[in-house]
Amino acid sequence: MFLENKSILFFSAQAFGYQNEIRAEMERMGARVDYFDERPANSFAIKAAIRINRNLLARYIDRYHARIIERTKNRKYDYVFFIKGESISVENLDKIKELHPEAKLIIYHWDSIANNRNALRILPVFDRAFSFDKPDCEKLGIRFLPLFYLRDYEEIGRQEPDYRYDLMFVGTVHSDRYGLLRRVTGQIERAGGRCFAYMFFQSRILYWKMKLQNKSLRGTSVRDFRFAPLPKAGLLDLYRKSRAVIDIQHPRQTGLTMRCIETMGAKRKLITTNGHIAEYDFYDSNNILIVDRQNPVVPPGFTTSPYRDIPAEVYDCYRIDRWLETILKS
């Protein structure tokens, strides 16, 4: 285990539990990990303010990070690892670097730089930088690295399927997602298929705001949506029971979402609006259907025809342990 006896200071905002999975995998690989939420709080208001402009809460955020720096200043780290880095200041990063001169500072962006106003300010401080978004990598000269699937999805891919649904969706509601999802599920249901959708808003306030702004939501009821993320066990159960998964990425995003990689890991079919997926080594038109956002069409039989295995050497490259090896070993 290449992380045996290594120490890692790890910062990531809460992200549907993925930060805990990353920490657990690093520990499984032999590391001692000190994890801290990169945000000082996770209320809707705090998250919104940071996304709009972290300077709105600069003093509050800086005091939070200063307490962490003070708490960890006497520990020795081999790596300081940030996911996204949407709230840390350049000054506090410089302080971490000063206190831990032997540590490699590394950042991974799993959101587009356009969605993170802080990203460009802090980028020069890091020794290594990675992103899931190819255009960001080409523009900024950082390394391209797609996301990963967890061991749980690999296990689903090995199991005998017990299909209950032809298509499932789990995700937050944004942009044109709701209207597009209804058009796709409508096609499958009219052909006799079964669909399941877990549509999530971070708050009821956000639902009412979007309902006023987005005409596709105007005929909906608050009862049509959920206001808490689906627990991991529920998501894994849906993967076991579903032939195919739909992914509708944000229109400003080109990198593949976690859902795309997880679906490949679970050996399920994928319907996606992200045409960039055709550039990836695991793309197979038998398994992955790219649909037009304006006119999505699902050919009859796509979800019910058998999944075709991809080469093992390609499949294995997207495991979480291989993802971490790339980031930390580089």
Proportion in helices: 25-40%
Main sheet, how many strands, which sense, barrel?
6 strands, parallel
Helical run tally: 13
Distance N terminus to C terminus?
15 Å
Biggest sheet strand order reads 2-1-3-4-5-6
**Order of helix and strand elements from N to C terminus:** EHEHHEHEHEHEHEHEHHEHEEHH
Quaternary structure state of the chains depicted: single chain
The dominant shape is: globular
Q: What does the radius of gyration come to?
A: 21 Å
Spans where pLDDT lies below 50 across 5 or more residues: none
Q: Give the CATH topology of the largest domain.
A: Rossmann fold
Strands, total number:
11
Chain-averaged pLDDT: 94
Q: What is the number of domains?
A: 2
Fraction of residues in β-strands: 15-25%
Proper CATH architecture of the largest domain: 3-Layer(aba) Sandwich
